[in-house]
Amino acid sequence: MPEATNSAPLPRQVADAHVDALVELDPVLGTYLGLPESSDRLPDFSPAGREARAELCRTTLARLAEAERRPGGDSAVERRCARLLRERLTAELAVHDAGEGLRAVGNLSSPVHSVRGVFTVMPTVSDEDRAALARRLRAVPAALEGYRASLEAGLAKGLPAGPRQVSTVIGQLDEWTGSGGGGSWFATLVTDGPEALRADLEKGAAAATGAMEGLRDWLRDTYAPAVDGAPDTVGPERYRRWARYWNGTDLDLGEAYAYGWEEYHRVHAEMRAEAEKVLPGAATPWEALRHLDTHGRAIEGVEETRAWLQDLMDEAIEKLDGTHFDLAEPVRRVESMIAPPGSAAAPYYTKPSLDFSRPGRTWLPTMGQTRFPVYDLVTTWYHEGVPGHHLQLAQWTHVADRLSRYQTTVGMVSANVEGWALYAERLMDELGFLDSAELRLGYLDAQMMRSTRVIVDIGMHLGLEIPDHSPFHPGERWTPALAQEFFGMHSGRPADFVESELVRYLGMPGQAIGYKLGERAWLAGREAARAAHGDAFDAKKWHTEALSLGSLGLDDLVAELSAL
């Protein structure tokens, strides 16, 4: 990165200074970035800790305004970083100032999930690693006490979390602590520790388990009764704020809702055609999918499935590198993992550390299953792994020194990333990798899920009317109950997955719509670039350059992609 004139910082340096300061406040972030000095601490989730993070945002915004006035501060690369930094910090402050952190309870993303999740990515090779693990385990009680203080402050301010979020998290804490008879997750975490550290590790695990049990009891006995009767949906004002946070733009929600319905009807027609090939005479595409659940190709065994997914990603890398992508050697490494018990139902991805010492990893929640239909796995792993999340986020890591660490880590815009991953599924279909009706029906089922997400997420949070052209309750207004029924009718996935997904949408308003809206932005950018270059359009070059842009909100994504 170039030096700033007279040692005064330019926007990229301001952005990276923000990352350094943020790591001090959020050691969990430091661990995900691969910084060992963060490995034995946890964040302060109390109101004071949240305000410290907000004050950092304010300070950085002031420094950014100065940096943009410096010579060189208006260059293209500096301007792109500055726009992202300003938009992200402004969106974060809007969420903070509205008190959203004081009611942060959800089944997928909350402080308690952050606390547990960081233990799944910590290195545990050396005695030093294990000692840091023990110290971080002992830090769990203070972190959860700060979280509880924030929730208490939220209650005092009349800012309740949704009751369905609370009951779901109570159930997750039951599972993590072993209250249902399965044993404590934290105790399992330290079972293979070295003898010299065994006592410290077991003491830390017991402290962490006890803190989780204490939080569960408080949520069940005090917090849940206090929020009983509060709405699970957030309403228009909160929804718009969260939609900006997750998508990096102020959306026209009416247009987005209409687009969701357009995609619903388009995908449904394609599904009917593929379903007829899978099961002639099937009444619905989901009848054909249920047929595939028992009669289609499947992998038996959890470890066998993990290994099969690893082979699938390795094969995709071999076939795509040099033809449709230009992959650096560190980006070619990705690991298939089994998610720990108590995870949400959806598979997920964790990005590599900045030095690639920890590779990118995909995670499969088994939900007690041992048999996994292939139609559901293939397109999901094109999304989570290759060419989806892994190729984008690992490439960002690879080019972090050319952009800024902020643009390739903290400044991630969900709709950009999820939009790319959904585009990646479509790309593999375009390239012929989904070479059977079985695999194409699975892909279209995933597309249908993302289309219905737009419909139900916007519809139920804003209480919109179901249009007359809907085959489901036309003219009625969306409620969470109707949303769950509609989603279940249009998904090949089991009931527990459908319920987990709905709880997720209620707890992360505006996030789920970014998949389809982000995919639309990626497709629009590609088509504009193709139109500009004509026959000279080089897909490999475009993909590689597009994945090297770093994070962009939907405000900027189409314009930047179109110019490549």
From TrEMBL:
<protein>
    <submittedName>
        <fullName>DUF885 domain-containing protein</fullName>
    </submittedName>
</protein>
<dbReference type="Pfam" id="PF05960">
    <property type="entry name" value="DUF885"/>
</dbReference>
<dbReference type="InterPro" id="IPR010281">
    <property type="entry name" value="DUF885"/>
</dbReference>
